[in-house]
Amino acid sequence: MNTSGSDTGSISAIVSPGMVGRERELAALRVVLSGPPVIVLVEGEAGIGKSRLVQEMLATGTPVRRVLLATCPAYRQPFTLGPLVDAIRPAAEDVAGLGLSGLAGALRPLFPEWASALPPAPEPAEDAAAARHRLFRALEEILERLDVGLLVVEDLHWADEATLEFLLFLASRPRQQVSLLVSYRPGEITADSLLLRLSSRQPAGTSRLRLSLEPLDILGTAEMVSSMLSGERVSDDFATEVISSAPPPCSPGRPRRGRAFHGRTTRCSAGSDRPPACCARTGRTPRSPSLRRPSRGCPPSVPVATPCASCTPCVHTVWR
């Protein structure tokens, strides 16, 4: 591959990166999910590939019955049980046909749109703890009626406390019927978070798998860049430059030195003050550092290119 920027005609269009360097983790996921219910913890910094690993596992098929995918958005104030409500609502097309018990009446506050299909609300509980336990049992029942074999919850470090409590409840059931797969950033877990209990304590009689994703090395980075360039060969020197010019995002208050490559491309808008009209940037997540204007006399480090509809393939330099 030409990395000098003098010959733009030989540079390939940039595409989404392939799945690289996570074959062992993917195989481990498939093995544990083919057995009895299990708790899987996928941890790593922002942009390291947690979501991509989960997506690849789901895309290639899972040995479990039904998969329910929930995500925890980065709200300033997360909604109570919001990730679970948003995941369950579209999965239950015919609530009346699920054969729910009277316990499901406790779900009325969470799903008011199901009012005509749910049983009547139960009598008021003795206290808030009893009401919460009743609600968790009702959520467990609807997961069973939906035949959910795997509950995936991504970005659990952003979850509300009630969602974390429900996952602890589900994981500690004597006859656990649902496997749990959760992803999170260890650096964003507060000291009092219930996520620490879920990740550190293993309930009796349950299996657990922890996958700690590490940044790609030089060979893995070269393979990823190559997958973005339709298999075009990438040298180790070029991969090293990519690593040094594209540091991973930093967790709040925890700056880190760049060691991993995160592949993503963006396009400049027409009329931008950054020539040429389109460019490519490395970074797997929106939180990757923006391109920085070079200091006077600073040499370019990584030329990369992508074509757009309004111009011929061109090279834009990613600076250190």
Describe this protein's structure.
The protein folds into 2 domains: 1-18 and 217-320, no CATH class; 23-92 and 146-212, P-loop containing nucleotide triphosphate hydrolases (Rossmann fold), CATH 3.40.50. 27% of the residues lie in helices and 14% in strands. It has 8 helices and 7 strands, in the order H-E-H-E-H-H-E-H-E-H-E-H-H-E-E. It has a 5-stranded parallel beta sheet, sandwiched between helices. It has a two-stranded antiparallel sheet with strand order 6-7. Strand 3, helix 5 (161-171) and strand 4 (179-184) form a beta-alpha-beta unit. Helix 1 crosses helix 2 and helix 7 crosses helix 8. The protein starts with 22 loop residues before the first helix and ends with a strand. The model is unreliable at 1-8 and 249-320 (pLDDT under 50).
Average pLDDT for all residues: 75
Proportion of residues in extended strands: 5-15%
Main sheet strand line-up: 2-3-4-1-5
Identify low-pLDDT runs. 1-8, 249-320
The biggest beta sheet is recorded as:
5 strands, parallel
Instruction: Assign an overall shape.
Output: elongated
The third-level CATH topology of the largest domain is Rossmann fold
Series of H and E elements = HEHEHHEHEHEHHEE
Radius of gyration, in angstroms, nearest whole number = 24 Å
Let me know the number of strands: 7
Architecture per CATH nomenclature, i.e. the level-2 architecture of the largest domain: 3-Layer(aba) Sandwich
Percent in helix: 25-40%
Number of helices: 8
Please identify the structural class as seen in this structure.
Answer: alpha/beta
CATH homology group of the largest domain: P-loop containing nucleotide triphosphate hydrolases
Q: What is the CATH top level name of the largest domain? A: Alpha Beta
Query: What is the total domain count?
Result: 2
**What's the N-to-C terminus distance?**
20 Å
